[in-house]
Design goal:
The protein is an alpha/beta fold. It is built from nine helices and ten strands. The strands form two sheets. The protein has a six-stranded mixed β-sheet, with helices on both faces.
């Protein structure tokens, strides 16, 4: 069974068609990248999967069960965690407290305080922020805040982790460090879908790459295959393409 199945989801915001009948399948243990120009619909796709808002049409299944009707907190507790392109820590709380909040409120079974703190410390050590545990999140650098976002997501005990531009804006050393952590996250059994513009990361991490453009899926496959796909090249050059319409089982 596929871990996640997205079937012909459509989302409109007023007169803007953000996603148009987009389908994709995420297999357990894979790292999948979603790429495309700004405004292509990448974050909207994440928002639908994570329950930020429902699709206008189509359906989403996680571990064989429909989730497109569920709110974000229920989806998180089922095992889908996410980070945000614009990092969203609780600025007045310490780094440790930020992760404790995630451990307490993001899991199907809320752990007691002492256990939640142990969980938070474990993920801060994993992500390299253990020395910042007592520091307010407002004093963290951008790179540290991105690490904190990942630690908070992992504290919810996800089976699927959605990373929205976790690498963007970092220097080459920081990029390499985050890439190493992403590989380690996959090794501990978490399936990963990431939105990214840093192509060295996309090519170096991904098993599968999905390409969106103007709210439509135009290609999917292994990284090198997608990078050389004429449909992808034409889309980025602004030339017309044939429409691909998958079947929806809904």
């Amino acid at each position: 069974m596929s871990l996640l199945e997205v079937h012909q989801v459509t989302k409109r915001f007023g007169g803007l068609l953000a996603l148009n009948r987009v389908s994709c399948t995420i297999e357990p243990g894979q790292i999948t990248s979603v790429i495309g120009p700004n405004g292509a619909g990448k974050t909207t796709l994440f928002n639908l999967i994570a329950g930020e808002f429902p699709p206008d049409a189509g359906c989403i299944f996680f571990q064989g069960e429909p989730i497109h009707h569920l709110p974000s907190n229920a989806i998180c507790k089922r095992g889908i965690a996410r980070t945000y392109q614009m990092v969203r820590p609780f600025l007045r709380l310490t780094t440790l407290s930020n992760v404790i909040v995630a451990a307490v409120f993001g899991r199907a079974q809320s752990p007691p305080q002492r256990q939640a703190e142990a969980i938070a410390r474990r993920w801060l050590e994993f992500i390299g922020l253990e020395e910042k545990a007592g520091v307010p999140a407002s004093r963290l650098t951008l790179a540290e805040r991105k690490r904190l976002e990942i630690a908070r997501a992992l504290a919810t005990e996800p089976r699927l982790l959605l990373l929205d531009e976790a690498i963007a804006g970092l220097n080459p050393v920081e990029v390499g460090q985050i890439m190493d952590r992403i590989r380690e996250i996959r090794q501990i059994g978490v399936t990963i879908v990431l939105i990214e513009h840093v192509m060295t990361a996309v090519l170096g991490l991904s098993d599968i790459v999905i390409v969106l453009n103007h709210g439509e899926k135009i290609a999917a496959g292994p990284p090198q295959e997608v990078a050389n796909d004429p449909e992808v090249v034409r889309a980025y050059l602004g030339q017309p393409r044939s429409r691909w319409e998958p079947r929806c089982p809904c």
